[in-house]
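Page header: ASSEMBLY MODEL / three components / 169 residues total.
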Amino acid sequence: MVETEAYLGPEDPASHASTRSGITNRNRMMFEAPGVAYVYRIYGVHWCLNVITGAEGEGQGVLIRGVEPTVGVESMARRRHGRRPLAAGPGRAAQALGVDGSLNGHHLSHTPLELLTGWTIADADVAITGRVGVAKAAEWPLRFFVRGSTGVSKASPHPGQRDALPPSP
DNA sequence: ACTCCGATTGTT
DNA sequence: ACAATCGGAGTA
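Prediction written out in full:
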């Protein structure tokens, strides 16, 4: 998992948990407990996988934007119908991992999808930029990716951005 | 009920 | 540059 984007709770204008709508049928899994998957359909075409990270009710989650294939490459290629890149980008990553709407709301410890942790990545190898494809608060430095990884979706939209922080809640 | 549009991708 | 594709969310 080499590229992610954080979406904060109701105070984040770009988040589906934004206070504008409150809790709806679409975004309600954002407010679930940490480790729950929030999967939603974008542009009527692709699935996007988020992992809830905030405490229950907080509405914080992390969008999985890019995966660098290491094991199971054959399966990923099959699910992607041989298209490249295999898993760089949220839609591609979800498809490569076999994620669809049926996973929405399931805790990741209770699904075929297993989240492995334990890798250490040096801070110097992690780039932090603004978020991709959002209309509001795009400049908030909440996109994280491993420099040079083939699993990263695209070049940084806001090069060099590393300092600014989102407003404290 | 009706319109608008999106945390994207693939093709022209 | 643009189509694909559809349900959520906002407006009435």
